[in-house]
Amino acid sequence: MEHPMYAFFQGKIVPISEAKVDVRTNALQYGTAIFEGIRNYWNDKEKCNYVFRMQDHYRRLFSNANILMIKIKYTLEELCDITLELMRKEDYREDAYIRPFAYNSGLKIGPKLIDNEQDLFIYSIPLGEYLETSKAINVCISSWARIPDNCIPPRAKISGSYINSALQKTEALLNGYDEAIVLTSNGQHVSEGSAMNIFMVRNGALITPPVFDDILEGVTRDTILKIAKEKLGIETTQRSIDRTELYIAEELFFCGTGAQISPIGSVDKRSIGNGQMGALTKKIQDLYFKVVKNEISQYESWCTRI
Ligand code: PMP
């Protein structure tokens, strides 16, 4: 089976080949759209799929719709039902990624957020690893700064804002790194990765940048805050992080729906710890992979069986 076979488009599930937008679409021209990325996990023991924290992703979509003044014409429950119906039809036997996309679908010229039609589509793709999870990756500090909240709000997951991510990621790859870490626009603090949040271990403590350092408020970040506290007894400190603190950290890892938990082995050629995945990172990763596959009953409400 070649996935995806279907998309939810203009109010119904259609073959993916029929889900096409007009070249004049406002969102295509100006990036006036918001989106989500949700993971579907194949549980090979139970031979079934679980969608991870679907309601929370849709809650974030509704918040972000408010920032961009996009009216979503479905309720949260309807979006969840549509997603499950779509995924049932796809019938995956592997991990996949679900992409809901709410956008200015009108054909009027001009970048504005009012007086235009709006719509929403959903499709999925098979997705194994987006970044390495079993071995530590090499990253650099990007020469590109993170877009600040008063330019394009990073928390809103706006499609047009991903040019900022694309510049960071491309520069990193062209220079031989796996990923980039980006600083806030004044260069003072660590913000996040090109499409993932970051955690640091220093003196055994878990630290992550606060929401006001121009990060996307990640669902995975939130998951780690909760499971580290509830299952490992570790409270995470949310505070600004300096660039050079990264160089002397014991452990660093990225997290995100796509990235999952990806250990960082070096930053700007400085080795982090022994350059391998750190012990606490491994503990959190093991726990995370169990949680997302509904193997820990305490978190079963996060996992929706398809
Ligand atoms: N930051 C950015 C810029 C992202 O694109 C993502 C991926 N959505 C994340 C962080 C991680 O967010 P989440 O855990 O909700 O996937």
Category from helices, strands and their pairing: alpha+beta
Question: Number of helix segments?
Answer: 7
Strand content: 25-35%
Runs with pLDDT <50, length 5+? none
> Ends: how far apart?
18 Å
Largest sheet: 9 strands, mixed
Question: Any idea what the CATH architecture of the largest domain is?
Answer: Alpha-Beta Barrel
Mean pLDDT, rounded to whole units?
97
Q: What integer value in Å does the Rg equal? A: 19 Å
Hetero ligands: 4'-deoxy-4'-aminopyridoxal-5'-phosphate
CATH topology name of the largest domain, in short, is: D-amino Acid Aminotransferase, Chain A, domain 2
Order of helices and strands: EEHEEEHHEEEHEEEEHEHEEEHE
CATH superfamily of the largest domain: D-amino Acid Aminotransferase, subunit A, domain 2
Model description:
The chain has helices at 26-30, 54-68, 76-90, 162-174, 219-232, 243-247, 279-292; strands spanning 6-9, 12-15, 33-35, 38-43, 48-52, 96-104, 118-126, 137-145, 179-183, 190-193, 197-202, 205-208, 237-238, 251-256, 260-267, 270-271, 303-305. Helix 2 packs across helix 3 (76-90). 43% of the residues are buried. It is globular. The chain is 26% helix and 29% strand. The protein folds into two domains: 6-126, Aminotransferase class 4, branched-chain amino acid transferase, N-terminal domain (D-amino Acid Aminotransferase, Chain A, domain 1, 2-Layer Sandwich), CATH 3.30.470; 137-292, Alpha-Beta Barrel (D-amino Acid Aminotransferase, Chain A, domain 2), CATH 3.20.10. It binds 4'-deoxy-4'-aminopyridoxal-5'-phosphate. 4'-deoxy-4'-aminopyridoxal-5'-phosphate is lined by residues 37, 165, 192, 195-197, 216, 218-221, 256-257.
